[in-house]
Amino acid sequence: MKFSYLFKGVVASVFGAAMLLTGGTAQADYPCKEATFIVPYSPGGGSDQMARRLVPGLEEALGVGVNIVYKTGGGGAVGFSELHRSAPDGCTFSNTVVPNVIISSKGEGVGYKPGDFAYIGMTESSAGTLMVPKDSKYKTIEDFIAAANENPGMLTVAGTGGSGLSRWNQLESVLGIETTYVPVGGGVGKMIPMLAGSHVDGAATGANHATKHKGIVDAILVAGPNEVPTLPGVPNEPDWNYVITWGLMAPPGTPSDIVETLNAALRSAASDPAVQDALTKGGYVTHDMTVAEVNAFMDAEIAKYAD
Amino acid sequence: MFEALLMAISPTYLMYMTIGVLLGLVVGTLPGLTATMGTALLVPFTFGLPTGEGIAMLGGLYVCAMFSDAIPACLVNTPGTPAAMATGFDGHPMVKQGRGQEAIVAACFSSALGTIFGAACYLLLAWPMVSVALKFGPPQFFWLGVFALTIIGSLAGKSILKGLAGAAIGIIISCIGISHAAEVNRFTLNIPELRGGVSLVAALIGVFAVPQVLSMILNLRKEEYVAEYKPEKGVILKTIIKVVSAPIHFLRSGVIGAFIGILPGAGSPIAAIVSYNEALRWSKDKSQYGKGDVRGVTASEIANNAAAPAAMIPLVTLGVPGSAPAAVIAGALMLRGLNPGPELFGTNATLVYSFGWSLLIAGIVVFFIGMLATPILVRIIKIPLRLLAPLIMFLAIIGAYAIRNNVFDVYLMLIIGLFVFLIRPLGFHPGPIGLGFILGPIIEPSLVQALYISHAVGVQRVFFSGSVSIILISLSVISVSAVAISRYRSRKKENAS
Question: pTM here?
Answer without folding.
Answer: 0.89
